[in-house]
């Protein structure tokens, strides 16, 4: 699939500018007034803004609090107190697959499942949505053609047909709170976005390109893009500090040869503790090996829960919590069913005006709405739009200009009274099982090929340390109280 990749990339300019010399943008302060908004509610003790609060789960916002009121403030005013953005993009899960049971099982007012959703099978029978107990299901088809067949012009009835076979019912499966408790706890405590769509109705790389640059430059598959103009270029120009923290490989290194402004995930935990995180943080999960925690099938989703909990808790205990925003999202649906027909948007390339399926997405932080379902239409480019708003960057293409920023996820009343973080349920991890696990199916083949071709500097390829990295991340989570090591 990557024939000719070496010749193509050898001519590309390497690197997109580093973050090392960037000057931190000072916090704007939390003194922006809020008009017409309810009080912050009975939050538990903060123990200082770097400490963990004792707040319980939310059922749908504090009494008297609106989940839509902006307090008459502009997006720029709402975003002004935030100077630390942490973005964690996981892999290959749809909204209904992960959060649809918020409605079906728990009765929350969210665009989720009602239990009647079904798709036809090749033999003419119907497969209805059902609870999925497998933590490591097979990897369903989710490339450009498969995703469009699943969509079927908005009927969303091609998921089972695309994954026909012994595991075809898995794509109609959903998980519940007991299986992914961290995600549900975050949905209780912060803003869950039930209209966040993947940027592209296709696989990983085009969607991550849109997260990083607001375009895939016409790329529909998992292939590199040359001369890519990323958000990091504009952050450099504005002297806004940034870094990509990664596990085994930084996706951007293989996708558009970004080789600077990178650090191992271990450094993220150290920087969070020291209060020295840059203004903009992108985190790449572990993509390869038995310790992979990216949630890409057939990787164990319990390791994904451990990563999410560890990242959130590291930020929660950081001196930077009181001026932060944590964005958790997934690159694309991964072939799993979602019942909402994706809308369109504006794009400089007509073929990319169609958005992809919904993905699980949470906006958290001291200013995020508590227990609210935010129905604004978002996509991955909304992250870029938010950074443009906050740091005065230009919206450099049509897609970015058309995207909604994330300010509607913020509660005006909290700007002058930031909320403490919540304590997440700890994730149990068996170190013996983790160390014994091996990758069952090959994933991220294109990224693997880019690495094996030698085009990426050897020092950026940490796959050989994969299990050691997985252990260090779990141990970091345990020190934070986010993970319980069983053996």
From TrEMBL:
Keyword NAD in annotation: no
The keyword Cytoplasm is annotated on this UniProt entry: no
Keywords of this entry: Hydrolase
GO BP, one annotated term: phospholipid catabolic process
InterPro entries, per database record: Alkaline_phosphatase_core_sf, Phosphoesterase
TM regions (residue ranges): none
A GO molecular function held by the record: phosphoric ester hydrolase activity
Region (Disordered): 54-74
Biased composition (Gly residues): 54-63
Pfam families reported in the protein's UniProt record: Phosphoesterase (PF04185)
Entry protein name: Alkaline phosphatase family protein
Taxonomic source organism: Polyangium jinanense
């Amino acid at each position: 699939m990557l024939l000719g990749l070496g010749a193509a990339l050898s001519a590309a300019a390497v690197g997109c500018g580093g973050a090392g010399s960037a000057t931190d943008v000072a916090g704007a302060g939390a003194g922006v007034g809020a008009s017409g908004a309810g009080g912050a509610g009975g939050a538990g003790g903060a123990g200082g803004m770097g400490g963990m609060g004792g707040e319980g789960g939310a059922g749908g916002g504090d009494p008297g609090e609106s989940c839509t009121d902006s307090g008459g403030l502009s997006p720029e005013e709402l975003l002004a107190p935030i100077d630390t953005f942490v973005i964690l993009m996981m892999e290959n899960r749809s909204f209904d697959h992960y959060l649809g049971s918020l409605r079906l099982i728990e009765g929350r007012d969210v665009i989720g499942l009602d239990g009647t959703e079904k798709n036809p099978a090749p033999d003419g029978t119907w497969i209805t949505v059902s609870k999925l107990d497998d933590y490591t299901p097979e990897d369903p088809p989710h490339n450009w053609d498969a995703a469009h067949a699943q969509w079927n012009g908005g009927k969303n009835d091609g998921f089972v047909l695309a994954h026909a076979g012994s595991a075809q019912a898995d794509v109609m499966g959903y998980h519940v709170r007991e299986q992914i408790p961290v995600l549900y706890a975050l949905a209780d405590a912060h803003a869950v976005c039930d209209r966040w769509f993947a940027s592209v109705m296709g696989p990983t790389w085009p969607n991550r390109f849109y997260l990083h640059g607001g375009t895939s430059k016409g790329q529909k598959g998992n292939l590199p893009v040359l001369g890519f103009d990323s958000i990091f270029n504009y952050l450099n120009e504005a002297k806004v500090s940034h870094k990509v923290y990664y596990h085994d490989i930084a996706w951007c290194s293989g996708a558009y040869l970004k080789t600077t402004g990178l650090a191992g995930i271990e450094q993220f935990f150290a920087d969070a503790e020291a209060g020295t995180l840059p203004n903009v943080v992108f985190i790449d999960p572990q993509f390869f090996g038995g310790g992979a925690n990216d949630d890409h099938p057939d990787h164990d989703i319990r390791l994904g829960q451990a990563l999410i909990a560890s990242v959130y808790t590291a930020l929660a205990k950081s001196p930077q919590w009181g001026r932060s925003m944590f964005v958790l999202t997934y690159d694309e649906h991964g072939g799993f069913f979602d019942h909402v027909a994706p809308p369109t948007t504006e794009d400089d390339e007509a073929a990319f005006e169609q958005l992809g399926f919904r993905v699980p997405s949470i906006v958290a932080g001291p200013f995020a709405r508590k227990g609210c379902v935010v129905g604004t239409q978002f996509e991955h480019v909304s992250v870029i739009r938010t950074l443009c708003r906050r740091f005065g960057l230009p919206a450099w293409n049509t897609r970015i200009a058309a995207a909604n920023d994330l300010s509607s996820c913020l509660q005006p009343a909290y700007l002058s009274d930031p909320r403490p973080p919540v304590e997440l349920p700890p994730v149990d991890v068996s170190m013996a099982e983790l160390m014994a696990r091996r990758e069952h199916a090959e994933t991220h083949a294109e990224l693997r090929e880019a690495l094996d071709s030698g085009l990426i500097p050897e020092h950026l390829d940490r796959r050989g340390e994969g299990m050691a990295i997985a252990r260090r991340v779990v141990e970091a989570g345990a020190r934070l109280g986010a993970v319980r090591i069983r053996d």
